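2024-03-11 09:14:02 INFO queue: dequeued item S41 family peptidase, len=445
2024-03-11 09:14:02 INFO validating residues
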Amino acid sequence: MLHLSRLTSLALAIAIVIGAPLAQAAEKTAPATPAAVSPAKTNAAAKPPLPLDELRTFAEVMDRVKAAYVEPVDDKTLLENAIKGMLSNLDPHSAYLGPEDFQELQESTSGEFGGLGIEVGVEDGFVKVVSPIDDTPASKAGIEAGDLIVKINGTPTQGQNMQEAVDKMRGKIGEKITLTLVRDGGTPFDVTLARATIQVKSVKAQMLENGYGYIRITQFQVKTGDEVGKALAKFRKDNGKKMNGLILDLRNNPGGVLQSAVQVADHFLTKGLIVYTKGRIANSELRFSADPADASEGVPLVVLINGGSASASEIVAGALQDQKRGILMGTDTFGKGSVQTVLPLNNDRALKITTALYYTPNGRSIQAQGINPDIVVRRAKVTNEADGENYKEADLLGHLGNGNGGADKPTVKSGAAAKARPQDDDFQLSQALSLLKGLSITRGN
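2024-03-11 09:14:37 INFO prediction written
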């Protein structure tokens, strides 16, 4: 298998972007982007001459705007806006990244940022703690779910939107910040915390029922491949035997790091191509093949997809579908089949530019088309009806016993409500679980 170097940190990835394969990706507001490689230097003699007439027009327009616009505009603002326009008109995923956007990109793909470790929401105009994250400054300081954050460093939060509050709580690691909290309608009190490195996991794994596992990937970050490997290992350890089935949930996953998508697919494949990329320049053409190791032990697999599954999610889904490794269930995916390269510039800025298209093992480009599921299952609202007053034979007085032995099975009276399970109110997930159970029965497991 042609491996990219394992990324130990996003900082390293950024450092080696020039002239080396880059496995990184996109943004929070649009489907994320597997990145490729930076363009190789071309022969200067082969470059076409500069379009002098167009450059003269550009200079003239800039002078006219500076002279005639209703308010003064400085050269820096005009030039930055010109660069943004140049990139944004190429395609929806190429962009000029200012310092804040570039930092957000790094945090998004690495899953690490400087913060307090609080999940927040907004309630009645106030910022409310939804949950403190374990082993973070917030949890160690005793902040509790339901606390209202009424001030941040003395500035009232009422009327602020959630993103404004989050931006104020994030920042430089080690820097102290004071939150004013109200708990259960009591008297406001201050808590001073120091920002620390917060790690957000992109993989959630649990057993739905005995023998049936569930892995949800929210985004493909640098460590996602390793997290999926650990989840599979834990399933093997906890289950004590080979599982009957596994559901891989890629719904509403906007994508992310190309290398992580390859690693996740490789956990379920033992041979063959995973994905390849093709671009205009030579070093944008890459091929990734599966390693013989099988972390999933060939467990029957259902992959959930929908219109929010994009980019790196489609790489994984396409590879598993083409290799006949899993059954895709849900609805058509987003259809983002392009690859972006992130090129750092000076002053903490960067270009994110489309350099290639990716293709599934069978040579499919899913750009603007998406991946079709093997079994279409649309979202639906699940409601459980109460059991009627039905009686069984075992309820009847004087009924005959079972000659084959075993206890009678009378009607079970409804008692306390059972603990809610993910599949109880998720129709697509429940259908995936039912399919796995059917496969298990027919295979004699």
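2024-03-11 09:14:37 INFO annotate: The first strand starts at residue 95 and ends at 97.
2024-03-11 09:14:38 INFO item closed
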